[in-house]
Design a protein that fits this description.
Elements (H helix, E strand, L loop, with lengths): L1 H13 L3 E4 L6 E8 L6 H20 L3 E2 L6 E10 L4 H13 L5 E3 L4 H14 L3 E3 L15 E3 L9 H9 L4 E7 L2 H16 L3 E2 L6 E2 L5 H14 L3 E5 L2 H13 L6 E4 L6 H7 L22 H4 L8 H4 L3 H12 L5 H19 L1
Helix pairs in contact: 2-13, 3-4, 7-8
């Protein structure tokens, strides 16, 4: 009997969303999402959750969204689930958001693989979804009309850096990547730009390492590549692997003319962890607190009400300061992309 009760309680907990931002007003838009608050992607998933939460709180605190169709003012009710870094659970949770919670709109999780699952669920159910943290090109290649992405896609991550380095005289490139799905897809895009710009690829084209790589393995790869002495060393990987690469270069006393890391430069942890070794490392960033990048909605959408200062006057620095005040830690591009995903949804909600 006790076992039955415990199982039932577990099922109830599993199927109950957290109301992260309540709405007590007459008119509410119910927005739902799931992301990893536990498991291997918990850090990124929690930052995604906090970015969405700050967006909804900001909208409600500033009086809501004036809908131009019915002239009513709407507030946001934000509900969320912990997908526990489990793709099967993620599928179930987004199905629940639609069929049980009856949300009006969907926001995406962290990660391209997870977002691809969500896009399938949304498309099957006829829902639109804003994918705030899905950069891999394959997410957007299914022909779905109701999928909207925020980040620059992986095929363009390395374009501007390689063009700039080529203009400075760089001619040779060494590329290695993790077998992580995101890093592998990104490496394909990098190879495309290497070929397009007529760089010479040195070393083993198939140089890669497992996502649970050790420092000794990285050291062995660097020892080989140091002998090739490429102008540009590119490492397509996650943060921890990029940090291992920087440490290995220091161990070998090798300073390539240019070092490009895919997932390190935009993380506050990279600077904290690596200190002075983080200097002069090149890499893509989706967002920076000093960029005034959120005012562009006024230029793109001419029906934004004049009193909607979140879309017209809310800067990256405002977001940065507000996020730290609310959650007491420094946001990365992940939280900023989540907040921006809310802003994109907000533009739609004005005229829906």
């Amino acid at each position: 009997m006790i076992r039955v009760v415990l199982i039932l309680i577990g099922l109830i907990v599993l199927n109950t969303a957290d109301v992260l931002v309540p709405c007590a007003e007459t008119h509410c838009f119910r927005v739902g999402f799931a992301s990893a608050w536990s498991g291997g992607l918990a850090e990124e998933g929690i930052m995604t959750k906090d970015g969405y939460t700050l967006w909804a709180q900001t909208i409600n605190a500033r009086g809501g969204i004036v809908n131009l169709i019915d002239t009513n003012t709407y507030h946001i009710e934000l509900i969320g689930y912990d997908d526990q870094t489990d793709t099967d659970l993620l599928f179930t949770l987004y199905t629940n958001l639609i069929e049980i919670d009856h949300v009006d709109f969907l926001l995406g999780p962290f990660g391209s693989t997870y977002s691809s699952i969500v896009s399938d669920v949304a498309n099957t159910s006829g829902y639109a979804v804003v994918l705030s943290n899905a950069a891999a090109d394959f997410v957007y290649e299914n022909g779905f009309d109701n999928i909207f992405g925020i980040p620059t896609t992986t095929s363009y991550y390395s374009e501007s850096a390689l063009e700039a380095l080529q203009s400075l005289g760089a001619q040779t490139v060494a590329l290695l990547h993790s077998d992580n799905a995101f890093a592998a897809v990104l490496a394909e895009g990098i190879l495309g730009w290497i070929d397009h710009l007529d760089f010479t690829l040195v070393g083993d084209v198939t140089s890669y390492f497992s996502s649970n790589v050790t420092q000794d393995v990285i050291d062995g790869i660097v020892d080989i590549l140091k002998g090739e002495d490429p102008d540009i060393l590119i490492c397509s990987s996650l943060l921890i692997e990029g940090e291992m690469m920087v440490q290995s270069l220091d161990n070998h006393q090798w300073k390539p003319k240019a070092l490009w890391l895919s997932s390190a430069v935009g993380s506050p942890d990279f600077i904290k962890d690596m200190g002075s070794l983080a200097e002069y490392v090149i890499g893509p960033v989706q967002w920076d607190q000093k960029l005034v990048c959120m005012v562009g909605f006024r230029l793109l959408v001419n029906f934004i009400p004049d009193n909607d200062d979140v879309l017209t006057n809310y800067t990256s620095q405002t977001f940065y300061d507000s996020f730290i005040d609310e959650f007491e830690y420094v946001p990365s591009y992940i939280a900023a992309s989540a907040f921006a995903g809310g802003l994109v949804l907000q533009v739609f909600l004005i005229g829906v």
